[in-house]
Amino acid sequence: MTPANPAPRGEGPALELLVHGVGGATAQGVLGDPRTVRITGDGKAAVFRRTEDAQAELHPERYAGRPVPEAYCWSNLTSGNGARALWLLLLPFMVANLAHWMRPGAVGSRRTTRVYGALVRLVALSLTVLLTAAACEVALDLVAWQCAGTHACGGARGRLEFLASAHGGWWSQPGRRLALAAAVPTALVALLWYLSNRTWSAYESQRPPAGPRAAADGGADTDDGGEDDGDGDEGEGEGPHRPALGRTGFWYGRRLVARLRAAHTAAGLLTVAAAVTGAAARHDRAAGATAPAVYGAVLEAALALAGCAVLYVVLRRGRSERRLDARLDRAAVRLLPGAAALLLAAGLGYACWSRPGWVSAGSLPGEESFRVIVLAQGALVVALAATARRLHRRARHPRAVLGGLGGPAVAMLACALGGVMTGGVAQRVADWLGGPGVIPGPPVLLSWQASVIPALLAVLLVPALWLALRTWRTARRLAPAVEREYGAARPDAARSRRIAGTRARARLTDAAPVIVGVVSATTLLLGAAAVVGAWRSGRPPARTLADSGPLLATAAEAAQALGSWLVGLGFVLFVAMGRRAYRDASARRTVGILWDVGTFWPRAAHPFAPPCYAERAVPDLTWRMCTWTDRTGGRLVISGHSQGSVLAAAAVWQLPSAARRRVALLTYGSPLERLYGRWFPAYFGPAALAGLHEELDCWRNLWRPTDPIGGPVMLPAQGRGREVDRPALADPLVYGRCDRYPLPEPILGHSDYRADPAFAEERARLLARLAPPLPRQGPASGGTRADGGAQGSSGRSSG
């Protein structure tokens, strides 16, 4: 409750809002005290203070010369329970979503930017179709068609005996077996829809404080009632009013995710319907059954029209960012999945039509669908690369990865991951059912794709060895420089080598684009070769090369076996990692780190990707800073480490001008320029960071040369402000032993920045530069406390 006798406004303490990085941090660890209380928030994300600081605003005399520490803990948004470990299976979707945000930011290229966004959304749609087609391949082709139609497989497995053609039961006809097996891919699509809808309600529906901001900034983001294409909005990276991350609706993707969820759900259901309906229609046309053939043709035409409707919804428009777009495209969200479900039901009924003479032999017709999907993905990636290159030529971000081709390269990796995971499932199920000697097995294309995996690994070995050699040579070159830097009177060769080696290994992060580029280009070329080989020969590579000599045939067979084993092993490792993370807290934190980095961005391309935690965290931080500075008029420094510095910067971008004048930003171990500025140049490129520095005069960044993640932001001084980067911190603090440090100091790298004396020094300078406290405003209605939290929350334990 509001105190009866509030302290005079000029005596209020300053606030330090700490935002941790990845890895499942706790309030006790961030604040360095086992006794903490929750000030505001819930079990997913909350603001905590030490117990003794819960009512700091009532006792300003206790905090003279130091701020009140406060921790925002968001780790449960990504790694709070073991169920999230199953999100590993959604990794291709997450990677495809990242490709959307990696495009170059070119001013004045609105149409080209829209094309880029549309192409990424098509790549994402192809991954949904690929996943559903793989489920159909396993359930419909391998189990219902091949195994149940073969006495050696279906008759030998008791659980599948009622489906066997030799059983003679109602389910023994191929069409009815396919209709029953369609329940598996249909359930998969329904599960993805459910997860996306559930997370959409929890993440994308968190409203940022748009009202105060729009009023404070002149109403730049008010809704004019017109259509607002987000791809066009974000295309310039910096709009006429503010950068993209500062726009009112950037962290509110409710409308787009709902629309894409409907389209992808419909696409998955239509894929299942096409697999079932197509098999029955081909049989009816071959058998000359007039009425069933006409019905099948009508169904196929309806499926084609529904597919065109899905493409229209996906291509129609992107994100709305200049305003809070709370509308929903109800025609697409409700009618499209419903129509797809009706067509699926009609197709299942059509497949159950009695066809006594229909016998399943060989593989299920429709194997060419995998070739079409892979070819479409390759063509989309090539078109995406051409579009990105055109944007990069206009933008010319000198440090953008791969010359602006980071997005297409990552999109190619998403397609490769999808192919490996789906191929691994099909191969393992085929082996479990009996292998090539019992059933024909999965499509030939999967065998060709498995054969090129060893070649891909061999190509990848070359840059890996080159990087290892370069790191070793860099470490040797840096050792004398380390001794000179510390002014070591008695150099220790082992100590110098350890420090130099740590610095050299930290530079490997900057070489990641080389690895990504090599893997993506090689995957594209080898994937094209696999499609051509499978299409021309129609046989596995070993049988295709049998006539070319025993040596080539043996090599092809070995490559196919090794690649198939590696594909299966990769999928098994994914499942094993997810299962271990479900049971092991340490493994769960490791998986959480992956999502902390990969799910920062909103779901702009794939609605089935893991949810964007920043759509909850950024509004949380913005609300906290706005309400605390408005209620108290005090000074606030938001202090972000690693990924927390990215969240802090994004929240500062969202602040209204009045609140931003009372806020300072302190970042340390920050990947803002080193990773985000290079991989996402449209949003964290030089122009965007320079704009943030211009709007926020009080910003300081700490970094170490031994840090593999954080680095300088490389922003010069502007106006009356200082340069953002402090000179590199010494790591370790001292080279050897001394009076103050009698024991050897560790090499900290990316951790424990707050233990460095420079941290407290820079924090004090930032607070000193902020404006003095404003006169206290009158108590607000509703019983709001002086610290800006909700009434009655200060006494709750952190648990």
TrEMBL record:
It comes from Streptomyces sanyensis. Keywords: Membrane, Transmembrane, Transmembrane helix. InterPro entries: AB_hydrolase_fold (IPR029058). Residues 203-246, 770-799 are annotated as: Disordered. The chain crosses the membrane at residues 85-103, 115-135, 178-195, 262-281, 293-315, 331-350, 370-388, 400-426, 446-469, 511-535, 555-576. Residues 785-799 have a biased composition (Gly residues). This is Integral membrane protein. Residues 220-237 have a biased composition (Acidic residues).
